[in-house]
Design brief:
Blueprint: E1 9-14, E2 17-22, H1 33-48, E3 54-59, H2 96-116, E4 122-126, E5 129-131, H3 133-140, E6 143-147, E7 151-153, H4 169-173, H5 175-184, E8 188-189, H6 190-195, E9 201-203, H7 208-219, H8 224-240, H9 243-264, H10 274-279
Parallel strand pairs: 2-3, 3-4, 4-6, 5-7, 6-9
Antiparallel strand pairs: 1-2, 7-8
Helix pairs in contact: 2-3, 2-9
The structure holds zinc ion.
Zinc ion binds near residues 104, 165, 254 and 258.
Protein backbone atom coordinates (compact mmCIF):
# COMPACT_ATOMS: atom_id res chain seq x y z
CA UNK A 1 0.00 0.00 0.00
CA UNK A 2 1.40 3.43 -0.84
CA UNK A 3 1.74 6.15 1.77
CA UNK A 4 -1.08 8.20 0.32
CA UNK A 5 -3.45 5.35 1.10
CA UNK A 6 -1.97 4.82 4.48
CA UNK A 7 -1.63 6.79 7.69
CA UNK A 8 1.94 7.25 8.96
CA UNK A 9 0.74 6.56 12.50
CA UNK A 10 -2.22 4.43 13.50
CA UNK A 11 -4.18 4.63 16.76
CA UNK A 12 -6.21 1.94 18.40
CA UNK A 13 -7.61 1.34 21.90
CA UNK A 14 -7.65 -2.21 23.29
CA UNK A 15 -9.34 -2.21 26.69
CA UNK A 16 -7.43 0.28 28.81
CA UNK A 17 -4.41 0.32 26.48
CA UNK A 18 -3.87 2.74 23.59
CA UNK A 19 -1.68 1.36 20.83
CA UNK A 20 0.22 3.95 18.81
CA UNK A 21 1.92 2.41 15.79
CA UNK A 22 4.49 3.93 13.46
CA UNK A 23 3.30 2.89 10.05
CA UNK A 24 5.87 3.33 7.29
CA UNK A 25 7.02 -0.29 7.15
CA UNK A 26 8.23 0.08 3.55
CA UNK A 27 10.85 2.53 4.91
CA UNK A 28 11.51 0.64 8.15
CA UNK A 29 9.39 3.28 9.92
CA UNK A 30 11.85 6.08 9.18
CA UNK A 31 10.54 9.09 11.07
CA UNK A 32 9.71 12.15 9.01
CA UNK A 33 8.10 15.21 10.58
CA UNK A 34 4.66 14.09 9.43
CA UNK A 35 5.18 11.05 11.64
CA UNK A 36 6.50 13.10 14.57
CA UNK A 37 3.42 15.30 14.60
CA UNK A 38 1.11 12.32 14.09
CA UNK A 39 2.75 10.63 17.09
CA UNK A 40 2.28 13.79 19.12
CA UNK A 41 -1.38 13.91 18.21
CA UNK A 42 -1.84 10.24 19.11
CA UNK A 43 -0.14 10.70 22.48
CA UNK A 44 -2.25 13.77 23.20
CA UNK A 45 -5.35 11.76 22.42
CA UNK A 46 -4.32 8.85 24.64
CA UNK A 47 -3.49 11.11 27.56
CA UNK A 48 -6.79 12.98 27.23
CA UNK A 49 -8.89 9.79 27.14
CA UNK A 50 -9.99 8.80 30.66
CA UNK A 51 -10.53 5.21 29.52
CA UNK A 52 -6.86 4.82 28.57
CA UNK A 53 -4.42 3.91 31.34
CA UNK A 54 -1.31 2.78 29.46
CA UNK A 55 0.17 3.47 26.01
CA UNK A 56 2.04 0.96 23.87
CA UNK A 57 4.32 2.40 21.19
CA UNK A 58 4.89 0.01 18.30
CA UNK A 59 6.36 -0.14 14.80
CA UNK A 60 4.60 -2.00 12.00
CA UNK A 61 6.45 -4.60 9.97
CA UNK A 62 9.81 -6.22 10.64
CA UNK A 63 11.43 -3.27 12.39
CA UNK A 64 10.55 -0.87 15.19
CA UNK A 65 12.26 2.04 13.40
CA UNK A 66 15.43 2.78 11.46
CA UNK A 67 15.57 6.31 12.91
CA UNK A 68 15.06 9.76 11.47
CA UNK A 69 14.19 9.99 7.81
CA UNK A 70 17.37 11.00 5.99
CA UNK A 71 16.47 9.77 2.54
CA UNK A 72 12.98 8.46 1.73
CA UNK A 73 10.69 10.12 -0.80
CA UNK A 74 8.58 11.32 2.16
CA UNK A 75 11.44 13.25 3.78
CA UNK A 76 9.96 16.60 4.76
CA UNK A 77 12.67 18.63 6.51
CA UNK A 78 11.74 21.79 4.61
CA UNK A 79 8.12 21.70 5.69
CA UNK A 80 6.47 23.78 8.40
CA UNK A 81 4.24 22.20 11.00
CA UNK A 82 2.30 23.85 13.77
CA UNK A 83 4.94 23.89 16.51
CA UNK A 84 4.08 22.22 19.80
CA UNK A 85 7.25 21.36 21.69
CA UNK A 86 8.36 24.95 22.28
CA UNK A 87 8.09 28.60 21.31
CA UNK A 88 11.23 28.75 19.19
CA UNK A 89 10.65 30.17 15.69
CA UNK A 90 9.99 28.01 12.66
CA UNK A 91 13.12 26.68 10.92
CA UNK A 92 11.75 27.05 7.39
CA UNK A 93 13.32 29.89 5.43
CA UNK A 94 16.25 30.28 7.87
CA UNK A 95 19.89 29.42 7.18
CA UNK A 96 22.57 27.33 8.88
CA UNK A 97 22.38 26.97 12.63
CA UNK A 98 19.43 29.39 12.69
CA UNK A 99 17.40 26.75 10.86
CA UNK A 100 18.98 23.53 12.15
CA UNK A 101 18.89 24.43 15.83
CA UNK A 102 15.27 25.55 15.56
CA UNK A 103 14.20 22.40 13.78
CA UNK A 104 16.01 19.91 15.99
CA UNK A 105 14.94 21.73 19.16
CA UNK A 106 11.36 21.26 18.06
CA UNK A 107 10.99 17.93 16.27
CA UNK A 108 13.75 15.95 18.00
CA UNK A 109 14.83 17.02 21.48
CA UNK A 110 11.71 19.03 22.27
CA UNK A 111 9.21 16.42 21.14
CA UNK A 112 10.95 13.56 22.91
CA UNK A 113 11.09 15.53 26.14
CA UNK A 114 7.43 16.41 25.79
CA UNK A 115 6.60 12.72 25.38
CA UNK A 116 8.76 11.64 28.31
CA UNK A 117 6.66 13.96 30.44
CA UNK A 118 3.30 12.44 29.45
CA UNK A 119 1.43 11.54 32.63
CA UNK A 120 0.54 8.01 31.50
CA UNK A 121 3.02 5.14 31.35
CA UNK A 122 4.26 4.17 27.89
CA UNK A 123 5.80 0.85 26.89
CA UNK A 124 7.94 0.63 23.75
CA UNK A 125 7.40 -2.72 22.00
CA UNK A 126 10.57 -3.21 19.98
CA UNK A 127 11.34 -5.73 17.24
CA UNK A 128 14.12 -5.71 14.63
CA UNK A 129 16.00 -2.45 14.13
CA UNK A 130 15.97 0.31 16.71
CA UNK A 131 18.55 2.67 15.28
CA UNK A 132 19.63 6.24 16.16
CA UNK A 133 16.45 8.38 16.15
CA UNK A 134 14.47 5.26 17.06
CA UNK A 135 16.38 5.03 20.33
CA UNK A 136 14.92 8.40 21.25
CA UNK A 137 11.40 6.99 21.06
CA UNK A 138 12.29 3.83 22.99
CA UNK A 139 14.15 5.84 25.64
CA UNK A 140 11.45 8.42 26.24
CA UNK A 141 9.09 5.50 26.87
CA UNK A 142 8.97 4.28 30.46
CA UNK A 143 9.48 0.59 29.79
CA UNK A 144 10.97 -1.32 26.86
CA UNK A 145 9.94 -4.85 25.92
CA UNK A 146 12.15 -6.21 23.13
CA UNK A 147 11.89 -9.32 21.00
CA UNK A 148 14.90 -11.59 20.74
CA UNK A 149 15.59 -10.33 17.19
CA UNK A 150 15.76 -6.67 18.26
CA UNK A 151 19.01 -4.72 17.99
CA UNK A 152 20.01 -1.22 19.01
CA UNK A 153 22.62 1.11 17.54
CA UNK A 154 23.60 4.77 17.42
CA UNK A 155 26.18 4.96 14.62
CA UNK A 156 26.23 8.75 14.17
CA UNK A 157 29.91 8.95 15.18
CA UNK A 158 30.43 8.17 11.47
CA UNK A 159 28.93 11.59 10.82
CA UNK A 160 31.31 13.05 13.40
CA UNK A 161 28.33 13.58 15.71
CA UNK A 162 28.38 12.66 19.43
CA UNK A 163 25.10 10.70 19.57
CA UNK A 164 21.48 11.44 18.66
CA UNK A 165 19.75 14.63 19.79
CA UNK A 166 18.07 13.07 22.85
CA UNK A 167 21.36 12.24 24.57
CA UNK A 168 20.21 9.78 27.22
CA UNK A 169 22.94 7.19 26.57
CA UNK A 170 24.95 7.49 29.82
CA UNK A 171 21.74 7.36 31.88
CA UNK A 172 20.00 4.47 30.15
CA UNK A 173 23.04 2.19 30.02
CA UNK A 174 25.82 3.60 32.18
CA UNK A 175 28.76 5.73 30.99
CA UNK A 176 31.22 2.98 30.10
CA UNK A 177 28.70 1.05 28.02
CA UNK A 178 27.57 4.33 26.46
CA UNK A 179 31.12 5.02 25.28
CA UNK A 180 31.48 1.57 23.73
CA UNK A 181 28.06 1.89 22.11
CA UNK A 182 28.89 5.32 20.67
CA UNK A 183 32.58 4.77 19.79
CA UNK A 184 31.88 1.61 17.78
CA UNK A 185 28.38 2.34 16.50
CA UNK A 186 27.91 -1.43 16.57
CA UNK A 187 24.57 -3.13 16.87
CA UNK A 188 23.74 -4.17 20.41
CA UNK A 189 21.61 -7.33 20.47
CA UNK A 190 18.55 -7.53 22.71
CA UNK A 191 20.11 -9.94 25.23
CA UNK A 192 23.04 -7.58 25.79
CA UNK A 193 20.65 -4.63 26.12
CA UNK A 194 18.87 -6.60 28.84
CA UNK A 195 22.12 -7.52 30.59
CA UNK A 196 23.16 -3.86 30.91
CA UNK A 197 19.71 -2.72 32.03
CA UNK A 198 18.71 -0.82 28.90
CA UNK A 199 15.53 -2.84 28.32
CA UNK A 200 13.09 -4.44 30.76
CA UNK A 201 12.37 -7.77 29.06
CA UNK A 202 13.42 -9.84 26.08
CA UNK A 203 10.85 -12.29 24.73
CA UNK A 204 10.59 -14.55 21.68
CA UNK A 205 9.51 -12.66 18.58
CA UNK A 206 6.15 -14.44 18.32
CA UNK A 207 5.34 -13.61 21.95
CA UNK A 208 6.29 -9.93 21.77
CA UNK A 209 2.77 -8.67 21.46
CA UNK A 210 1.19 -10.96 24.06
CA UNK A 211 3.93 -10.28 26.62
CA UNK A 212 3.81 -6.53 26.07
CA UNK A 213 0.04 -6.38 26.41
CA UNK A 214 0.08 -8.65 29.47
CA UNK A 215 2.45 -6.15 31.12
CA UNK A 216 0.37 -3.18 29.95
CA UNK A 217 -2.83 -4.78 31.27
CA UNK A 218 -1.20 -5.44 34.61
CA UNK A 219 -0.08 -1.82 34.96
CA UNK A 220 -3.53 -0.67 33.83
CA UNK A 221 -5.01 -2.17 37.04
CA UNK A 222 -3.29 0.55 39.06
CA UNK A 223 -4.84 3.95 39.83
CA UNK A 224 -4.24 6.56 37.16
CA UNK A 225 -2.99 9.28 39.49
CA UNK A 226 -0.75 6.84 41.35
CA UNK A 227 0.89 5.86 38.08
CA UNK A 228 1.28 9.48 36.97
CA UNK A 229 2.88 10.56 40.25
CA UNK A 230 5.14 7.50 40.33
CA UNK A 231 6.30 8.17 36.79
CA UNK A 232 7.02 11.79 37.67
CA UNK A 233 8.89 10.73 40.81
CA UNK A 234 11.29 8.52 38.86
CA UNK A 235 11.69 11.09 36.08
CA UNK A 236 12.51 13.78 38.64
CA UNK A 237 15.09 11.49 40.22
CA UNK A 238 16.59 10.85 36.80
CA UNK A 239 16.78 14.60 36.21
CA UNK A 240 18.53 15.00 39.56
CA UNK A 241 21.07 12.49 38.23
CA UNK A 242 21.73 15.05 35.52
CA UNK A 243 19.68 13.76 32.59
CA UNK A 244 18.04 17.04 31.64
CA UNK A 245 21.01 19.36 32.05
CA UNK A 246 23.36 16.76 30.57
CA UNK A 247 21.18 16.53 27.51
CA UNK A 248 21.08 20.31 27.10
CA UNK A 249 24.86 20.55 27.25
CA UNK A 250 25.34 17.76 24.71
CA UNK A 251 22.77 19.32 22.37
CA UNK A 252 25.28 22.15 21.93
CA UNK A 253 28.05 19.68 21.03
CA UNK A 254 25.67 17.95 18.62
CA UNK A 255 25.07 21.25 16.85
CA UNK A 256 28.77 22.10 16.85
CA UNK A 257 29.23 18.83 14.93
CA UNK A 258 26.43 19.57 12.44
CA UNK A 259 27.85 23.06 11.89
CA UNK A 260 31.40 21.73 11.45
CA UNK A 261 30.17 19.27 8.83
CA UNK A 262 28.33 22.00 6.95
CA UNK A 263 31.34 24.32 7.19
CA UNK A 264 33.99 21.93 5.88
CA UNK A 265 31.89 19.63 3.68
CA UNK A 266 28.78 19.43 1.58
CA UNK A 267 26.16 19.00 4.30
CA UNK A 268 25.53 18.74 8.03
CA UNK A 269 25.57 14.91 7.94
CA UNK A 270 29.15 14.63 6.62
CA UNK A 271 27.88 13.27 3.31
CA UNK A 272 26.34 10.20 4.93
CA UNK A 273 23.11 8.79 3.56
CA UNK A 274 20.66 6.17 4.80
CA UNK A 275 22.36 3.71 2.45
CA UNK A 276 25.94 4.49 3.47
CA UNK A 277 25.01 4.26 7.13
CA UNK A 278 23.27 0.93 6.59
CA UNK A 279 26.09 -0.50 4.48
CA UNK A 280 28.68 0.25 7.15
CA UNK A 281 26.62 -1.26 9.99
CA UNK A 282 27.97 -4.23 11.90
ZN1 LIG B 1 20.94 16.44 14.58
Amino acid sequence: MSETENEVVTYEVRGAVAVVTMNRPEYRNAQNSAMTYALDEAFYRANADDEVKVIVLAGSGKHFSAGHDIGTPGRDIDSSFERKAGLWWDHVGKEGVDSRFARESEVYLGMCRRWREMPKPMIAMVQGACIAGALMLAWCSDLIVASDDAFFADPVVRMGIPGVEYFAHPWVMGPRFAKEFLFTGDRMPADRALAIGMVNRVVPRDELESETFALADRIAQMPRLGLALTKKAVNQAEDLMGLRTGMDSVFGLHHAAHAHNAEVGADSLAGQTAKSMRDSAT
